[in-house]
Amino acid sequence: MSTARVPKSVLLLTAASMIICLPMIALSVVNFGLLSIGLNAALAFLILIHHFSFYVATWFTRKPNPAKIHASTDDLDDFAQLLDEPSIALHLGNIAVLSFLTMLNIVAFAIMIDITTRGPIRSTLPIERIGSHKWNIKVQIGQTCVLGAELLMLGLILAICGLGRRRFNALKEDQEEIHDYGLA
Q1: Radius of gyration of the chain (CA)
Q2: Is the pLDDT of residue 133 over 70?
Q3: Are 83 and 172 in contact (CB under 8 A)?
Q4: Are 138 and 103 in contact (CB under 8 A)?
Q5: Which of 40, 74, 76, 138 has the CB geometry, 3.0–4.6 Å to 28, for a possible disulfide?
Q6: Rounded to whole angstroms, how far apart are CA atoms 77 and 38?
Q7: Cβ atoms of residues 97 and 154 within 8 Å
Q8: 15-34 per-position pLDDT tens digit
Q9: Residues 136-161: tens digit of each pLDDT
Q10: Residue 14 lies in a domain
């Protein structure tokens, strides 16, 4: 079980990312492009599933604030026990899933830029040439912008979690050195 708290910035960015997924789903359904429905809606659902699971895991693994516990005790070993496991946001599994979702979002964003700039008839993707009479440039631009905003949110969450994980590892190594060399 995790003992550290999830940073508020990660919680807020995750909530913003969930909100951005809703127009992403709506625009993918309205566009009627095969790629839009298949890739963008699926990506939005995967992101929503991850974020919902993240909030549920955060809820079930929440513990008291480690700073308050450290302030109430002078024993360094008690504080070292708090560093046994990172918060759910800094867990390697979460960072791996965020990396995967970010890569999928990069691919979807690149495809949408290609379709938006060239149009469905001249697109490099043959699947978009089918049923192109229902293609709408305004919906396509909106969908590309929403994908770009989602990519920005996922990138920020991944950066915060990755940097937090690096900081956690450095703090844990320092703690192990203090314990090993008897400097406590």
Answers
A1: 22
A2: no
A3: yes
A4: no
A5: 40
A6: 52
A7: no
A8: 999 999 999 998 887 776 66
A9: 778 888 889 999 999 999 999 999 99
A10: yes
* pTM, full prediction: 0.77
Tell me the C-alpha to C-alpha distance, in Å, between residue 140 and each of 33, 40, 41, 102, 130: 9, 12, 14, 20, 16
* The pLDDT of residue 127 is above 60: no
The helix/strand count (H/E) of the chain reads as 8, 0
Is 170 inside any structural domain? Answer: yes
The structure tokens listed for 19 are 């909100």
Q: Is 6 exposed, middle or buried (0-12, 13-18, 19+ CB in 10 A)?
A: buried
* Residue 133 Cα to chain centre, angstroms: 35
User: What is d(CA 98, CA 106) in angstroms, rounded to the nearest whole number?
Assistant: 12
In angstroms, the CA 45 to CA 29 distance is: 13
How many separate domains does the chain show?
A: 1
Residue closest to 65 by CA, chosen among 4, 21, 10: 4
Task: Tell the burial category of 108 from Cβ atoms under 10 Å away from its Cβ (0-12, 13-18, 19+).
Answer: buried
CA distance 68 to 102: 35
HSE (side-chain half, CA atoms, 13 Å) at 81: 7
